[in-house]
Known about the structure:
The chain has 187 residues and is α+β, with helices and mostly antiparallel strands. The protein has one domain (2-165): Alpha-D-Glucose-1,6-Bisphosphate, Chain A, domain 4. The protein contains four helices and nine strands. The protein has helices at residues 14-21, 24-30, 117-147, 152-156, and strands at 2-10, 37-41, 52-59, 62-74, 78-85, 90-100, 103-113, 161-162, 178-179. It has a seven-stranded antiparallel sheet, with helices on one face. It is globular and about 45 Å long. Mean pLDDT is 85; it is low at 162-187.
Amino acid sequence: METIRLMTWIDAPVDRCFRLSASIDLHIASAASTGERAVEGVTTGLIGDGVTVTWQGRHFGLRLRHTSRVDAWRPYSYFRDVMVQGMFARFEHEHFFAPMDDGTRMQDELRFSAPWGPLGRLATKMLVRRHLTTLLIRRNAVIKRVAESEEWHTYLDGQQMTKQESRGDTRGLPVGETIQPHPSKPH
Length: 187
């Protein structure tokens, strides 16, 4: 089992960073080099608790599909997506968010293992780990750039979190009502 850990400091409120990390559209923009797109499940807007997304893109010259399900969701501090179908033997990505005095600390912890025994371990050491790290660094740079500018409106305006997306933070709302994001400090 391999683990990649990255920490990114962002000069923006924690709720904005969390919601941008949950944006399908921002993920697609950050993965433009692979032509990655959401093809099944939630394909636009924001993900939430229990939802699945199937991604399709080119990696290592192959068109690959990867289906993940969000199995843990705690706005605005944590969520985890786990592969339910794809090329890895195991793949889970944990997203942590901590408000700081002057912004947000965003941390990714990605754990994965390749199939194919010794051949998979060799491929992981030579290619896969570096490829996944590059994709995460690129994604986090896009989240940081967008969150710290007015560009975040492109991805979040009109994208309210539904009750299902914010499970655990329903605040007693009737079914179908939406939860407005926490007020953010002006930027």
